[in-house]
Design a protein that fits this description.
Elements: H1 14-20, H2 36-43, H3 58-71, E1 75-79, H4 82-93, E2 99-102, H5 108-117, E3 124-127, H6 133-139, E4 144-150, H7 162-171, E5 176-179, E6 198-202, E7 216-220, H8 248-252, H9 256-269, H10 275-286, H11 288-307, E8 312-316, E9 340-345, H12 350-358, E10 363-364, E11 374-377, E12 388-392, H13 398-408
Parallel strand pairs: 2-3, 2-4, 4-5, 5-6, 10-11
Antiparallel strand pairs: 1-7, 6-7, 8-9, 9-12, 11-12
């Protein structure tokens, strides 16, 4: 039977890709080399086959291919956590003396990496307040390797202007990278469709059903032309000492970044995703669309209810378009507004200590993006007067979620 050509392959929509993308019934998954030369060629990137799970694994590869399809990218690399995805991306592109420009507010864990882990390596993060497009351009110099932003910022849930930031980065000859954790695997936002070159994300929230898996993912759009800035990225153009002088760009072209991240950073430092986690995440992708539809619906209703609650000082949620403190780019949100709310409560921080005893359905915890509704205290965003929490909204009945919070919040000072 003749093989199906690319032009004959059906084009599936997001929901179908979540179930089928990446599957192949013809892959050789045996990890067997034809001979020693074949094995050496695989490790040196001159031949392609599965050789070692730290570099590539059949189950992990299905997850990578599916995530690339859902995000609209050409290739992906799975990692052991969201932090590993960020750090792998940084170290694949930046070296001592480099800097990166951060064009949005970022989550606490990302801020720790940028502020505390990079300086000892000689890499500097330049933070641009409020993601000002003009200031982003001003912050870029000859040593800047990329512009970074979160699609929906982790602290105040602002929606970044992806198209404008991508244009600002490209005008300086550097890639634009988006942390799309809040975009839920491309269901809510697909940054690559709007000009992003690389997408990274914590693959635990929303992608996994429980929200408690440890995984990350890097997706390469395959659209950035690295050859326009060879002086910024010499690792792609100069002979690679770790690969017998192989020139990455000559072999991999516009997929040089993701290929180098896998073959050099992943191979040598080992932040790989284990196959069992990949298996669970693949299962999660099959139901991602229907879960996010329910979660987004619940979240909007809860945000509207909390906004009118006397125990609540402020609610930040992209769906509350009339909220005065929001800078919204809701044109990027086509399928809903996600499952995360930032809520400032009236009263002292002691409220958070009393809430667990009042709540009967909703829980306090740290894992967001799962099937259960969780309240996550935010130490960095709380003041003595107005403690701030995230609410990660789950799949329960919205009536039950509201009823539980209603009976708990008015009594939180008693």
């Amino acid at each position: 039977m003749a093989e199906t050509t690319d032009s004959e392959k059906p084009v599936y929509k997001f929901e179908s890709l979540g179930v089928h993308a990446g599957l192949s019934r013809k892959e050789n998954v045996s990890f067997v080399f034809e001979n020693s030369a074949h094995g050496a060629a695989i490790f040196n990137m001159t031949a392609e086959a599965f050789c070692y799970s730290r570099i590539a694994n059949p189950t992990v590869s299905v997850f990578e291919a599916r995530m690339a399809a859902l995000e609209g990218g050409e290739a992906a690399l799975a990692t052991s956590s969201g932090s590993a995805a960020l750090f792998t991306t940084i170290t694949a592109l930046a070296q001592r003396g480099s800097n990166i420009v951060v064009a949005s507010s970022v989550s606490e864990s990302t801020a720790h990496i940028l502020k505390h882990r990079l300086p000892p390596l000689g890499i500097n993060a330049r933070f641009v307040e409020n993601g000002s497009i003009e200031k982003v351009g001003e912050a870029v110099d000859k040593d800047t390797k990329f512009v970074l932003a979160e699609s929906i910022s982790g602290d105040e849930l602002f929606v970044s202007d992806i198209e404008a930031l991508a244009e600002a980065a490209h005008s300086k000859g550097i890639p634009f990278i988006v942390d799309n954790t809040a975009g839920a695997g491309g269901f809510l936002i697909r940054p690559i469709d709007h000009g992003a070159d690389i997408v990274i994300q914590d693959a635990s929230p929303w992608i996994s059903i429980s929200g408690s898996n440890s995984a990350g993912i890097i997706i390469d759009s395959g659209k950035f032309d690295w050859s326009q800035s060879p002086e910024r990225f010499p690792q792609f153009f100069e002979p690679s000492p770790g690969f017998h002088g192989l020139k990455i760009w000559e072999k991999f072209g516009k997929l040089s970044f993701i290929s180098y991240a896998r073959a050099a950073i992943m191979r040598d430092t080992g932040p790989c995703l284990n196959p069992f986690e990949a298996f669970q995440l693949i299962a999660g992708l099959e139901t991602l669309s229907v879960r996010l539809e329910r979660i987004s619906s619940n979240s909007l209703k809860l945000a509207e209810w909390l906004r009118d609650n006397e125990r609540v000082v402020a609610v930040r949620y992209p769906g509350l378009s009339k909220h005065a403190t929001f800078r919204l780019n809701t044109k990027y949100l086509k399928r809903g507004y996600g499952g995360l709310l930032s809520v400032s409560l009236a009263g002292s921080p002691d409220i958070l200590q009393r809430l667990p005893g009042k709540l009967k359905l909703v829980s306090l915890g740290q894992s967001i993006g799962g099937s259960r509704t969780i309240i996550v205290p935010q130490s960095g965003g709380s003041s003595e007067a107005n403690p701030t929490v995230w609410i990660s909204v789950g799949l329960e009945s919205i009536d039950d979620i509201i009823a539980d919070l209603k009976q708990a919040l008015p009594n939180s000072e008693k």
